[in-house]
Every structure is written in structure tokens, then in C-alpha cells.
Amino acid sequence: MATTHLAFTVATAQQVAAFWLADGGANLKNATPYAVQPAVRAIRLPSGAQRGKPGYVEPAPGPASPNGKLPTTSGKVFFVAADGQPHWCTGTAVQSASRNLVATAGHCLYDTEGNSIALDKWVFVPGYSEGTTPWGLYVGKEAFADYDFDVYEDSDRDYTLVTVYNGVVSSSPGVLTDSGRLVDNIGGQGLTYNQPMNASVDVFGYPAGPNPDGTQPYAGQTLERSHGKTFNAMAPAIKGEDLVGTDSPFTNEGSLGSSWLLNYGNGNRSGYLNGITISVSDIDRDNRYDTSLSPYFDDQFYDVYSAAKDRLTGPIA
């Protein structure tokens, strides 16, 4: 288990929020999709035996979505990377006792390119669109990851869960107003682990970037959805020997951190988190991405969740 402090004091969290909300959200608008490990060569494997007893955490349904059947729990995570520039990945709110938890890819929080442990000024903005923060901006306080990813950058454990402070909005220049706890505002997806392959999942994210043939079907500005079945996969170039793939046309940059939801319901817009996109691949070699890749969620994933789910945060405004 690896625990990392982000904005661990209220004063630091206020500074982080101000950085993103200043000048009408200029840094949010100028951020670009994160381009670390966006696409790899993957291999589809025969289905193996189910591992362990399946477990579940029930979701907390959110409010009516302005996007109809799409979840309110999805959004973008923003941070400053090793290049000193603002970037983003996809993230999703997850139900927990403290109602303040966000899930994303491990390398969308841990700095795998620079000398820092964590990417700087990390925040979550659910429902982000064109510089707006419709449900508030949530500053990350503490990150929880598997030891093997933190130390060895093992892609089989490329996931992280982040506790966030209460949301804030900028009510006037330089003034932050509290908007409450994350899951209270937008709901939280459940999660499940030790699931068999060939399960149907819905993937939600903000894909951007082109296909290998140069076509660019997504712009990264709106939440997108794809549907596919899971299968065993591996990607040796990123130390991914025990991955899960699912059929998905999502392109690379921007889709990192996308949620894979099992048993997603259009009516209540909730399901069970069963994967997180860490890269995409063109398995059939037709120069268009056809597969999203995730670590397999097992007992070790649940251990990370268990360490994070009761951590309190609180308001910063």
C-alpha cells in the first residue's frame, strides 16, 4: 500500500483551487490531454479462470444528468505535469463512507516522467465543459495506490483512489464558496472486483487525440460512451502481464482514467466500477484503436479502496 499527500493542508488546497479558478478558469481551458502512455501494442489472451470471490460496493445514485443517460459522476482530473504545463485525464466519483473519493489511472496522479512523487495541483471537476465547473472543483488531499505501481510502475496495478476536499466555486474574484461533498452532489459509482471475463461494460471518458491513420473522431470536450465485453490481455512494453481489455473505439489521449462500469443503468446512471483505462491499443492492426486496457480488479484493488474509503477531508472555504 502506498499513500501520498497532495494538498494536505487547507491553505495549500486553497492555493490549488485559486490556480485553476483564476481568470475565469483560464488554466482549465488551456489544459491539454495527458500524453503519457496513451497507446501500446497489446495481445488478446484466452480467458483464464476466475480469481477469488467476487465482491461489491453499492453505488450512490446521483441527481438527474444534464446529459441524459450519461453519468454525473464522470469528469476531468487536472494537474500540472513534469513539463510544467496543465493537463487532464478522465476521473470518476466512487461511493465511500466519507463520500469524497475519485478513481483514475495511477499515472494520472503519480509522476512517472519527472522527479516528483505526484503530479502537481491535482483537482477533479465533474461534468467539466469549456472552462465551467457545474458541480464545483474538488482539490485532491491524499492518494492511495498499490505498492507495486508506486515503486515499480507495474501497469497491472496502474490505478489510484484520491480523497478530495469539499467542492468550491469562485463566487467572486479571489473568493471561494463551499459547494459540499463530492458524492452528496453528484452521486458515486459502486465498485466490484474478482469478476469473470466476457462481462459487458460501459466505458465513460473524454477521448481525444487521433487514430494511427490520422482520423480524429473525438475532440475531448464532451463525455463519450462505448460498450464492449472484457477479455484477458497483456502489454509487455508497460509491464502489463495481467491486464483486461474491452472492445472500445476510444482514442488515446484524454481517455486515460475512463471508468468501466458493470451493470450500468440508464435510469439511475450508476453501476459498478470494474476497470480504469490506462492505455488503448489497435489489436487488429487496421490503424484505428479498437481496445481499451485496464488492470484487473482483484483483492489487492479492494485493499487500496479499503484504505481510502474512510479518510475524512472537509471544507476549504
Topology:
Layout: E1 2-5, H1 10-30, E2 32-33, E3 43-44, E4 55-57, E5 74-80, E6 86-94, E7 101-105, E8 120-126, E9 138-145, H2 147-152, E10 159-164, E11 167-172, E12 175-180, H3 182-186, E13 190-193, E14 200-205, E15 224-235, E16 240-247, E17 259-265, E18 270-276, E19 279-281, E20 291-295, H4 299-308
Structure overview:
- By secondary structure, this protein is mostly beta strands.
- The protein has a single domain (2-308), classed as Beta Barrel (Thrombin, subunit H).
- The chain has helices at residues 10-30, 147-152, 182-186, 299-308, and strands spanning 2-5, 32-33, 43-44, 55-57, 74-80, 86-94, 101-105, 120-126, 138-145, 159-164, 167-172, 175-180, 190-193, 200-205, 224-235, 240-247, 259-265, 270-276, 279-281, 291-295.
- The longest helix is centred in the first third of the chain and has 21 residues, at 10-30.
- The two termini are 31 Å apart.
What does this entry show, briefly?
The chain is mostly beta strands.
Structural descriptors:
about 325 residues; mainly beta; Thrombin, subunit H; ten-stranded mixed beta sheet; six-stranded antiparallel β-barrel; 4 helices; globular
What is the strand tally?
A: 20
Provide the CATH architecture.
Beta Barrel
Q: Any idea of the CATH topology?
A: Thrombin, subunit H
The general outline is globular
SSE run:
EHEEEEEEEEHEEEHEEEEEEEEH
Helical content class:
10-25%
As residue ranges, the low-confidence spans are: none
Class of secondary structure makeup = mainly beta
**Mean of all residue-level pLDDT scores:** 95
